Amino acid sequence: MTLNPLLPFLMAGDPSLEALPGLLAGARALGLEAAEVGLPHSDPIADGPVLQAAAHRAIGRGATPRRVLESLAGLTDSPDLILFTYLNPLLQLGLDPLLRLLEPTPVRSLLVVDLPFGEEPDFEAGLRAAGYPLVPLLAPTTTPERAKALLDQRPDPGPGAPFAQRFAYVVARLGVTGTGQGTDLGPVAARVRDLQGITARPLAVGFGLSDPASLRAVRTLGATPVIGSALVADLTLGRPIKACLESRIA
Amino acid sequence: MNDAFVLPTRFGARGLGGCYAPETLMQPLLDLEAAFRAAMEDSGFQAELKAELRHFVGRPTPLTPAPRLAAKLGLKALYLKREDLAHTGAHKINNALAQALLARRMGRTEIIAETGAGQHGVATAAACARLGLRCTVYMGVTDMARQAPNVARMRLFGATVQPVEAGQGTLKEAVNEALRAWAGRCTEAHYILGSALGPHPFPTLVRSFQTVIGEEARAQVLEQTGALPEAVVACAGGGSNGLGLLVPFAGDGLRRMAVEAGGHGRALGEHAARLDGGRMGVLHGCRTLLLQDAHGHTAETASVSAGLDYPALGPELAALVLDGTVDARRASDEEALAAARLLCETEGILPALESSHALALLPALAAEGVASVLLGLSGRGDKDLSTYQSRLEL
């Protein structure tokens, strides 16, 4: 299995919904097989200042959940997408309308930050049955026993499935997205090695990674680094996506 | 359901509540539930809490007959449960102190809290000063401006008050920021949530530490009058005061009423009456009635009272209302202000703007033929003096 070198995160609607297909095509042109697309939410409790601000700008520009998914419909020149979201906007759409909106998009899985397994069993089962598994999250506070359970509850569909549907997301550090640059990667390295001992599925590591050295360090562990806030901040400044990503893949 | 928890995580026929938390907070929430259950079964903890409530908080708080206000409104009898006389000026200290004791028992040295009107922040800061815990309170900038005396009180008690600039600068944003801060420091800090909301076990924890209000009030009214009132009334922001007063009267067959903030209009954004304009949704870790737009984004709210403008009703209180055992009503800003003035003039008691919403329901209850009422006076109005001065042209 070749290592997916980078999992970029883009906030839908920031800088604009119109720009999103081009950004995704840019990521694909660099050979990236998957990307996270954030659905902007009014109360992103797991996000730091950069993604909060991006979400609020996107909402201000009319990036509703429906419009975001409609803007992804029919895209062929895109990596597989992981829809990164909070639960309430999905609940308000309802399962069937959500599935209808997802169907023509490159979305292959969902990462719902505030939905632990078991809280909305029918909703989650409906998504999975339609081909949209939920990504398991593993935090620094997740005990080894709990990690085993979480990986079983949201199981690996196996090597035939794409990365977007297989990977588990390892939260690198305590706190929220985008803060803590320069964090000691020692503890997360140990956690990744432990997790690799209990699962064969690919792992992505995110929260607070931005500099090329940290990203390389994650790749050295055999895991895929996630680049979120730093990328969103660069795109906000108008830097082209190719330049933003290239230096971080090397 | 999340089977790792032991206590029920859901309320009512529609399964409100739950634990919709990011994974980072799941183990801390599991640990908190375990510590709470152990403490509730520990007679040493119960004795310590009881002693602190008596000697530090000043419990039991009085149940004061209000005959002049009752006569003015056409009620036969009115009794006020005086949480305004609890130390720091509101019911919030009951929960803040109990959770601070629990945090110390868990070996936590640092406390995080959110505050809206500032009463929970002040109570938490005071409890932390008393127990020697470090305290950081997150507060929206709008609330800091309109509740400035409480900001000063928190700082006097040694707490750091962290301004939250996002959004409307009120309680919702303060909770967002407190949850984020807790996710960063959850291995050493305990988060003292002040309302009966948030992910399990917080709603249960807060309700358990607040029912002392209703338990005392029930015993006191029986002792003073030999009978229960026809109605018990409380204001409802998140629900800590409402549940604290109303839950102990559950088996009594009397009318239990919760009053929400009617603000200055009926359109979304002009009030905080979740039962009138709210839809089922998930915010801050629980499923409940929520003021939101069509896209699932939390709506803005409005109320003259900083303690009642949270966009969601706590899940247990929402469940009681939806299941029909508690009636929810609304009172407008103007009605609350007028009710506050009337209590001042007839009984010499200055109520908090939050409590004034409960008072504002009394004319309607009298008109409906209710003769006797027990009302939760959740806090004192000193913090609201500047609002009273400007709105009542004093």
UniProtKB/TrEMBL annotation, chain A:
It comes from Geothrix rubra. Pfam families: Trp_syntA. Belongs to the TrpA family. It catalyses: (1S,2R)-1-C-(indol-3-yl)glycerol 3-phosphate + L-serine = D-glyceraldehyde 3-phosphate + L-tryptophan + H2O. Keywords: Amino-acid biosynthesis, Aromatic amino acid biosynthesis, Lyase, Tryptophan biosynthesis. InterPro entries: Aldolase_TIM, RibuloseP-bd_barrel, Trp_synthase_suA. Its EC number is 4.2.1.20. It comes from the Bacteria. It is an enzyme of class 4 (lyase). The gene is trpA. This is tryptophan synthase. Tetramer of two alpha and two beta chains. Pathway: Amino-acid biosynthesis; L-tryptophan biosynthesis; L-tryptophan from chorismate: step 5/5.
TrEMBL record, chain B:
It is an enzyme of class 4 (lyase). Its cofactor is pyridoxal 5'-phosphate. The modification N6-(pyridoxal phosphate)lysine is found at K92. Pathway: Amino-acid biosynthesis; L-tryptophan biosynthesis; L-tryptophan from chorismate: step 5/5. It catalyses: (1S,2R)-1-C-(indol-3-yl)glycerol 3-phosphate + L-serine = D-glyceraldehyde 3-phosphate + L-tryptophan + H2O. It comes from the Bacteria. Keywords: Amino-acid biosynthesis, Aromatic amino acid biosynthesis, Lyase, Pyridoxal phosphate, Tryptophan biosynthesis. The keyword Lyase applies. SUPFAM superfamilies: Tryptophan synthase beta subunit-like PLP-dependent enzymes. Tetramer of two alpha and two beta chains. This is Tryptophan synthase beta chain.
